[in-house]
Specification:
The structure holds 2 protein chains of 2 kinds. Chain A is an alpha+beta fold. Chain A has helices at 5-14, 28-37, 65-75, 125-131, 149-159, 166-178, 227-234, 253-265, 282-293, 312-325, 341-351, 362-379, and strands at residues 22-25, 42-46, 59-62, 79-80, 83-84, 88-91, 96-107, 112-118, 136-141, 181-192, 197-199, 202-206, 238-241, 246-250, 272-275, 300-307, 332-338, 356-359. In chain A, strands 7, 8, 9, 10, 11 and 12 form a 6-stranded antiparallel β-sheet that branches. Chain B has a 7-stranded mixed β-sheet, sandwiched between helices. The chains are: A alpha+beta, B alpha/beta.
């Protein structure tokens, strides 16, 4: 889960990293007030979970409270790369002398965290790395010891950061560990004209798997804007909305991803990712079908199950009972293979629903579902 | 032969007395696994009856090893306790810890995989189905009855895709199938398994199943070019995954241009790996590659004269 800039700022502040004075609001009038409280001049920044805000016009410097109000009015409601701006952060401006980049990021290849630092901050680190790779230091962090002063000194030296940044590097590591973050990034970390080290902008990505012990973020969770995704999440379904016409239900993340690819290979577009995992109960099947059938883009539905641990007759039973509960409005193609497949197919045959048909292979089922969807699109 | 797990393996189950642990211990025993004990400090000294076999419960992994000579542990404990369980197993000197548990915080996985490495313990997983050497032993939750023992080695990030291919190729069979897990940080990589299969005399061909996220498949491709002489057939899931969304597995996410299925497929094909566009086509590539190997072995100089093999090689790009 990505945090908003203002949430990252709060975390930095809690761990003793210096941040600019700032406040968040969704009201232009309040933005004016905040600017006045900050002394008149202020930076108004869109709060969105994506990069490139500055280029999109989502960051404005206001010379006085009236300008801050106008800036907030302009920025609120703006669309930045598909993200609607709901709040702005009004912050005290900072006299920047130098800009640096520091982050701790998960290095999947090594199975540990990496410190990345550069004396050339303020721009995208990928750009710096591409242009002047020698300007970016990458130091693996030993998980057994973490980042204490000695490691922080090594990171700062390698990147050519001034010794004053060492304290911020140590504190930033604490943010990463205490908050179970997968990424903490400060860009830019600045030295002000007064010689203070300030985290001017930051990004934090938390580990969804650790939310059970990071309870304060618990309520934040389904921040998903798609209402189908919100409905699916409320039912505990592992669902991702896509933009297509073939609804997909399968068991196991890998097999479902593969099913989407096979549908796409048949010339249709998958409408969603839905992994029912091992629990192919009638409840899960009915919930899944009802979410998929309320997607107006869906023209056909494909159920692709390989019975490994899950038995296919249990899946078929789930489908049959779901059909009593959910009114099927689109053709449903079912492919069952693996454990008890024959019994599962027989159960579906016995139900003989006019909109349900079966296929024996994954490729054949995807082809059929794609054809049905295309036919429905052409007809409708 | 096999990799990591044989009929000689003596298996402990951490979390055996929980619902999942009970269910899968019964399945493992039925598949021939030598399950020598469970671990649960609160139920130490008791035993659990599985059909015709009573399996003792030990208070610690160390006790389990001392009493039974166990060398493998399968971990089913809940996410909050998984780190302590793996650290305990590594400190007790277990050789292999197979971590089935899904939903373990990444910081914990970083800590226990590093700790295990420092103790010489191999970790498979977390968030994996485990591994099976068909006909010999099954450590985890892979269905044992959908394939047989044979000459293919398989390494995969995904459970159900593994089952799909095990089933499609059930007539040829497998030496060992390893599900390395779909989390961002795992103890055993594709490369570790490729190395083990390359050194296993009974494995004639290796299937590598990957998915979006990270660059493990690209690194595996570089490894194959330098170090793998056996034919490798690949499959990648997630071509249609949208950027920035996690697809089921915590590690399955495309960030910018990195981690895409296309990049992984291209990296593998560039080193001569045949990559199937569907699981079924992947199985077909395996059959073709095995036929090519057989033809080459029978008449090394006449391979080009065999139209089918030559066409197949030209179409798929012959391995250098």
């Amino acid at each position: 889960m990505d945090l908003y800039e203002h949430q990252a700022r709060e975390l930095f502040k809690e761990h003793g990293i210096v941040v600019p004075r700032a406040e968040v609001t969704d009201s232009p009038e309040r933005a004016r007030e905040i600017a006045r409280e900050l002394g008149g001049r202020a930076v108004v920044k869109a709060q969105v979970k994506t990069g490139g805000r500055g280029k999109a016009g989502g960051v404005r410097l206001a010379a006085d409270p009236a300008e801050a109000e106008e800036a907030a009015r302009h920025i609120l409601g703006m669309d930045i790369k598909g993200h609607r701006v709901g709040t702005v952060m009004v912050a005290e401006p900072c006299a920047i002398e130098r800009e640096f980049y520091v982050s701790y990021v998960l290095d999947r290849a090594r199975g540990g965290f990496l410190a990345i630092a550069s004396a050339e901050g303020g721009m995208e680190i990928e750009e710096v790395a591409a242009r002047r790779p020698e300007a970016v230091a990458r130091i693996p962090v030993d998980p057994a010891t973490g980042v204490h002063t000695a490691t922080a000194v090594r990171i700062a030296d390698a990147a050519g950061l001034p010794p004053q940044t060492v304290d911020a590097l140590v504190r930033l590591w604490k943010v990463l560990v205490r908050e179970d973050a997968l990424l903490v990034e400060v860009n830019p970390l600045v030295r002000t004209a007064e010689g203070r080290i300030v985290a001017l902008d930051g990004k934090v990505t938390l580990d969804d798997n650790a939310l059970f012990r990071q309870s304060r973020w618990g309520e934040e969770r389904p921040a998903s804007e798609d209402s189908l995704e919100a409905r699916a999440a409320a039912k505990g379904l592992n669902y991702v909305k896509l933009d297509g016409e073939v609804g997909v239900i399968g068991n196991g993340a890998g097999l479902v991803m593969s099913t989407l690819d096979v549908v796409a290979g048949c010339g249709a577009r998958p409408a969603n990712f839905l992994d029912i995992g091992g629990g192919a109960s009638a409840r899960v099947m009915a919930d899944g079908l009802s979410v998929i059938l309320s997607d107006p883009g869906v023209k056909s539905v494909l159920v692709n199950v390989f019975g490994g641990i899950t038995a296919c007759d249990a899946v078929a039973d789930g489908i049959v009972r779901a059909l009593d509960e959910v009114r099927l409005t689109k053709p449903l193609v079912v492919r069952l293979d693996g454990n008890n497949a024959a019994r599962g197919r027989a159960l579906l045959d016995a139900r003989a629903h006019p909109l349900v048909e079966q296929a024996t292979t994954m490729d054949g089922a995807a082809r059929r579902a794609a054809r049905l969807a295309t036919a429905a699109s052409t007809a409708g | 032969m096999a990799i990591y797990l044989t009929k000689e393996s003596k298996v402990l189950v951490q979390g055996m007395t929980g619902a999942e642990g009970m269910k899968h211990t019964r399945r493992m025993l039925a598949a021939g696994t030598d399950v020598v004990g469970g671990v649960n400090p609160r139920k130490a000294g008791r035993s659990v009856d599985f059909d015709d076999r009573a399996v003792p419960v030990f208070g610690s992994v160390r006790e389990g090893i001392e009493s039974t000579g166990a060398d493998v542990s399968v971990v089913f404990v809940p996410p909050a306790f998984a780190k302590a369980a793996v650290v305990e197993a590594a400190d007790a000197g277990i050789g292999l810890a197979v971590v089935i548990t899904e939903g373990i915080p990444v910081h914990d996985a970083v800590a226990f995989t590093a700790h295990a490495r420092s103790r010489g313990t191999r970790v498979i997983g977390p968030n994996c189905p485990g591994l099976i050497t068909p006909g010999q032993s099954n450590a985890g939750i892979i269905p044992p009855d959908i394939t047989k023992s044979g000459r293919i080695g398989l390494v995969s990030k995904s459970g159900t895709l593994t089952y799909q291919l095990m089933y499609e190729l059930r007539d040829i069979g497998f030496t060992t199938c390893v599900g390395i897990g779909g989390d961002p940080v795992v103890g055993t990589s594709h490369i570790d398994c490729l190395t083990a299969f390359e050194n296993d005399p009974d494995t004639e061909l290796i299937i590598l199943i990957g998915e979006i996220g990270g660059d493990a498949e690209e690194r595996a491709a570089a490894h194959i070019r330098e170090h793998v002489t056996k034919p490798v057939v690949g499959y990648i899931a997630g071509f249609t995954a949208p950027e920035g969304r996690t697809m089921g597995h915590a590690g399955a996410i495309v960030s910018g241009s990195s981690g895409t299925a296309r990049a992984k497929q291209e990296a593998l094909e560039a080193v001569g790996v045949r990559v199937g566009s569907t699981p079924t086509e992947t199985a077909r590539h395996v059959l073709e590659a095995l036929a090519d190997t057989a033809t080459d072995a029978a008449a090394p100089d006449a391979a080009a004269a065999d139209g089918t093999a030559a066409d197949g090689a030209a179409r798929e790009g012959a391995r250098a």
